[in-house]
Specification:
Layout lengths: L7 H17 L3 H12 L2 H10 L9 H4 L10
């Protein structure tokens, strides 16, 4: 059975509340890991490599801090 969103505006508001709640529940380390993952996303890496392909690859801040990957608690 396919699920249909019957009220897209309410769905958008609820989703936004849930995203903010998930962000509020994150620890400092989880926040750092999320920010680092955004900064080193594939799009950013493509941009960096296009500008300076001879540079070495950026080291992951999460790896450096030994933060284990895990799902965000909601």
């Amino acid at each position: 059975m396919d699920t249909m969103i019957k009220n897209p505006e309410e769905y958008r508001r609820q989703s936004e509340r849930e995203r903010w709640q998930a962000l509020r529940l994150m620890s400092a380390q989880e926040s750092i890991a999320l920010g680092e993952s955004l900064l080193t996303s594939e799009i950013m890496l493509l941009t960096v490599r296009a500008e300076s392909p001879e540079d070495d690859h950026p080291r992951s801040l999460a790896i450096t801090l030994r933060i284990e990957p895990k799902a965000v608690r909601t």
